[in-house]
Amino acid sequence: MPLRVRSCRICVSALIVAIISLTLSSAFAQSGSATPGSKPWMNAKLSPDERASLVLKEMTLDEKISLLHGTGMRGLGPMSPLSVRSNGGAGYVVGVPRLGIPDIQMSDAAYGVRSSGENGRYSTALPSDVAAAASWDLDAAYEYGALIGRELRAQGYNMSLGGGVNLTREPRNGRTFEYLGEDPVLAGSLVAQVMKGLQAQHVIGDIKHYALNDQESGRNAVNVNIDERSMRESDLLPFQIALRQTNIAAVMCSYNRLNGDYACENKHLLTDIVKKDWNFKGFVLSDWGGTHSTVKASAAGLDHEEPAEIFYGPSMKNAVEAGQVPIAEIDDHVHRILRSMFACGVVDDPLERSVVDVVGGLEVAQKIAEQSIVLLKNSQSLLPLDAGKIASIAVIGPHADVGMISGGGSAQVDPPGGNAIMPPGQGRTKWQDQVWFPTSPLKTIKAKVAHATVQYDPGTDASSAAAAAKSADVAIVFAYQWESEGMDLDNLSLPGNQDDLIAKVAAANPHTVVVLETGGPVTMPWADQVGGILEAWYAGSGGADAVANLLFGDVNPSAKLPITFPKSVDDLPHRNVVKPPKKATTEGEPDGWKRIAAGLPAFQITYDEGLEVGYKWYDAKEKSVLFPFGYGLSYTSYNYSNLTVTPGKNVRVSFTVTNTGGQAGAEIAEVYAALPQNAGEPPKRLVGWSKLKLNPGESKDVTIEIDPLYLSIFNVEKNAWQLISGDYAFLVGPSSQTLPLKESVGLK
Ligand code: NOJ
Q: Which of 462, 464, 536, 549 is most buried as measured by Cβ atoms within 10 A of its Cβ?
């Protein structure tokens, strides 16, 4: 059945919401978007820098300063009277109407537009960011960003707060779902495409949280200790790659301290690295309440304070007038903001609200989910299920009858019609809610097997679920783990009785398939007992259709893990998430702000595993894992052959992939490099990949050019990347632990 018909319930309710809210918002006026006649900077033929310089010359000090801060956010400190013109998003910056510089309306938008609910409007929830990373698909990443960009503009926003690209050093981080996994090259390349797609819609993009905000516990108080080389080669590298590949307008600095200084007043991070070494032309804005000073932050390179004007409003003006902040510094901050506005098209293309394309959004969300869901286990080809042969299915698991879970915090997208597990009419979702999208696996499974009996059991009582499983041909258990900003996970186990539930169901029926709805890795003590495992992540608005299509073989799985699934938390670099001392606890809204402003006693995390992030840790420590980085199965099979490696400015790695099975599929072929011994690196690193569509029996030759940066190490003494002379081994295959092809070459 076509998607348009299947999704009609959601579409109709969402369209109604969107149309009503568009009508309600007709009074919305885009302050500052009026065309200022024939101002020279409105000449779009000039470069963004030229245009910014022309505007800057006309601006008063007050106008300059008004661009350097937000106007307040409810529950997070003082509100400016001007905030009434805010569109309801996380940030609102007053423009300069007399010069034709529009307001900046910012909304969180990690996997969809966050601030829709407050305005009663509709947004598509895409699969979570880590899910999209599992597609390893640059085109899908572009579409991901483009969809968010279109929906932001439709809802009256011209700046996105998405682009989370912190590397997963700590998989218990409550925001793992918002990031792009544990590899810098994969994460950086993907976020670059998300931003390209987003900014092409005339929306200012940002990447965050710069840097090393790798856990939520005590994020405002923690001081992260890490050595320069490790951070440059790991945590900062995705930012560097993204900024090199796309002209991203903004970087959001993070809450934590890094090697002593808060990230948002850390000169080394903001000026030495981003602005000088990486030649970043855009602006740095603080995370919400992450600014801690005026003079120090400004000199360190922070361009803009959010959400209010504690340090960058009147205090900044006083500091300028007292000669503590040079006007050239202010001009640089303002220039960066203006040039970003011109570069992203928000000046030339003023905001105009429109109705969100609900059906188009669902199609994109479902398509990306289908490319994101990883098949982790498929014993005796239990999957795909044969709809024609199955007589009975037991669908088991909390809320699998009504919806699929999503990730919480500022990334949260409001579902149309409200949280699927709450009574109708409950209004906007709250920060602490576990929000389930109304995408029902039970319904989509039923729709696949019109002639079979489908029984549902919520799994609350494992024995009753086991009895339901026993009487069915196949049992499908939907298990979940919820993540949110502002918290970390205590461990990697499925919460509640879910491990026991799965074990009991699997004991009752060997044809048990587990579908995981998790933000990141979980442990699976029952993995050997079940026939199939699908990692569906937080699958978004089109999740249930995507899952059903994979279960029944309408779509052949192609996704691969962007993150290692360890066997146990004992195998992680740190036994526990380091928690702040009680008195420094700051998390949670709304009183967090007061305590942030008051200053907090620092506590320490030391990332002494250094370069060994994710699979590099398990490789170096020779620890076996449950499912490795880069791993994922398909309903067909592939063979790798004919590796040749040609040295040169860009090393060329060529090989052949053949579809040796009976179904068309897409294979992500991965290339890793082992650096010379004297480089002092973990055993191998990802340096490239290619996603190949192959029909049964078809072969394709691939050549991947390796960016020299990806083969280099960071030389701290020289403050430069360096390619070490010596023997490099190139390894090619379907996952980080299955690399059938290997060739070594000497590089100078
Ligand atoms: C704090 C979060 O860390 C950040 O990601 C978000 O964009 C802001 N709040 C605004 O909601």
A: 536
Res 149: pLDDT: 98
Q: What is the pLDDT of residue 426?
A: 72
Q: Among the atoms of ligand 1, which is closest to the Cα of residue 91?
A: 10
Architecture label for domain 631-747: Sandwich (2.60)
| Cα–Cα distance, 474 to 478 (Å, whole number) | 13
Q: Where are the domains of the chain?
A: 1-30, 47-343, 363-551, 631-747
Ligand 1: which atom is nearest the Cα of residue 219? 3
Q: Does domain 363-551 have CATH number 3.40.50.1700?
A: yes
CA of 150 from ligand 1 middle (Å) equals 21
The answer to whether the CB of 437 falls within 8 A of the CB of 543 is yes
pTM of the predicted model, to two decimals?
A: 0.95
287 Cα to the center of ligand 1, angstroms = 6
> Residue of the nearest CA to atom 4 in ligand 1?
287
The pLDDT assigned to 635 comes to 98
Residue carrying structure tokens 């990692």: 535
Q: What is the 3-state secondary structure (H, E, C) of 633-675?
A: ECCCCEEEEEEEEECCCCEEEEEEEEECCCCCEEEEEEEEEEC
Cβ contact 719:705 at 8 Å: no
CATH of 47-343, one of 3.40.190.10, 3.40.1400.10, 3.20.20.300, 3.30.420.200: 3.20.20.300
Which residues line ligand 1 at a C-beta cut-off of 6 Å? 90, 108, 161, 208-209, 287-288, 410
Give the count of beta carbons closer than 10 Å to the beta carbon of residue 232: 22
In ligand 1, the atom with minimum distance to the C-alpha of 254 is 3
Residue with the smallest CA separation from ligand 1 atom 3 is 287
d(CA 83, CA 72) in angstroms, rounded, equals 7
287 catalytic per annotation: yes
Average pLDDT along the chain, 748 residues, taken 10 residues at a time: 40 44 38 60 97 98 98 83 92 97 97 77 94 98 98 96 97 98 98 98 98 95 96 98 98 97 98 98 97 97 96 97 98 99 98 94 98 98 97 98 97 90 78 92 97 97 98 98 96 98 98 98 98 98 98 98 98 94 53 53 93 98 98 98 97 98 98 98 98 98 98 98 98 98 97
Q: Choose, from 287, 303, 357, 499, the residue flagged as catalytic.
A: 287
Residue nearest to atom 9 of ligand 1 (CA): 288
pLDDT of residue 118: 58
